[in-house]
Specification:
33% helix, 2 domains, flat, 4 helices, 7 strands, 23% strand, alpha+beta
Length: 140
């Protein structure tokens, strides 16, 4: 009986299920951007982003309009922005929203909700119990 370490290790690995280690990782959907001429920019998967982030449509909508400096409407669960907004700029603002309003700074998990005490808005983490004030001019 040959007890070669490499052969035993290979046999043990064959018995394990294939796992890339990303089961706990939070991966929000990337905004799917569509430009209609020079007059409109559409985020096609706006509702999918809202579902994954577990946030109110109006909150993300107002944040993006304010940050991108444009007007827009929600139509058929898509966000339609006026003007041609660069795709990179939209993606950066969505990441900024996630960092500010979704991810807990203590445990880096997206299991958070808003709590309003007086005039202060707090991000309340359901995973670790952490609470932090959100410093922004956007009102929930």
């Amino acid at each position: 009986m040959d007890l070669d370490y490499e052969k035993l290790l290979e046999r043990a690995r064959e018995g394990l299920k294939d796992d890339d280690g990303n089961s706990e990782r939070f991966t929000p959907p990337v905004p799917e951007i569509l430009h209609e001429g020079s007059k409109k920019t559409i985020i096609r998967n706006f509702s999918e982003i809202l579902d994954v982030l577990r946030r109110d449509e109006t909150h993300l909508y107002k944040f993006l309009l304010q940050e991108l400096g444009t007007a827009g409407t929600v139509n058929n669960r898509r966000l339609v922005l006026q003007g041609r907004v660069p795709e990179k700029k939209i993606k950066e603002r969505v990441v900024s929203y996630i960092d500010t309003f979704v991810i807990c700074q203590e445990c880096n998990r997206p299991d958070t909700d808003f709590i309003k005490r007086g005039r202060t808005l707090f991000l309340d983490c359901q995973a670790c119990g952490g609470k932090r004030p959100i410093r922004t001019k956007l009102v929930v």
